[in-house]
Amino acid sequence: MNRRSTDDNGTAGAAAAGRSGSAGDDRYGPLGPGHETATDPLASGTWVMSGALVMEAIVVLLALTVVLRVDEGAYATPFNITYVAVLGVVMLLMSGLQKRRWATPVNVILQVLAVAGFIVHPAIGIAGVIFAAAWVYVYYLRHTIRERQRRGLLPAQHWPTERRDDAGE
Fold it and tell me: So where does this one cross the membrane (predicted)?
């Protein structure tokens, strides 16, 4: 039996899917807009961002020993110690709040503060630059998934919504 979907007139293809079929039409993918997925494809992104913040908090808090011991404690000023400790603790706290709507701007601010760690010690600034690059990649992936979802390019958008028994066909 032919499993190709057809419309009421028995025609198939781009016109049946509601698309013009022209080469310049990139509104949807080749399978059409698809349906809503059963699970949110961006939900796993919050776990990735939480994990990244936990790792960054660990690195920042371990960098506190660098501030205290390198050059016989020359960088161990009250400002530097407070800056690093507060930054690490806030990153750790924010790792549990990634599902909040306001988490993205706070993440960006934390990355700016991490890169600004050059004023405390170059090692903290370098770690901030490395993690900032990782965050740029995370947000790039998030944007790509949203765009693919909008265009109907995620595989889960084309799975059947209910299970069928194909044995009787």
Answer: 47-68, 80-97, 109-141
CA-to-CA separations, 105 to 57, 89, 123, 146, in angstroms, rounded: 17, 17, 25, 18
DSSP 51-85: HHHHHHHHHHHHHHHHHHHGGGGTT--HHHHHHHH
Burial class of residue 6 in the structure, from the number of CB atoms within 10 Å of its CB (0-12 exposed, 13-18 middle, 19+ buried): exposed
Q: Do 66 and 123 contact (CB within 8 A), yes or no?
A: yes
Query: Distance between CA atoms of 110 and 25, rounded to whole angstroms?
Result: 40
Residue linked to tokens 């161990």: 76
Is the pLDDT confidence value at 95 over 50? yes
Q: Is the pTM of this model over 0.90?
A: no
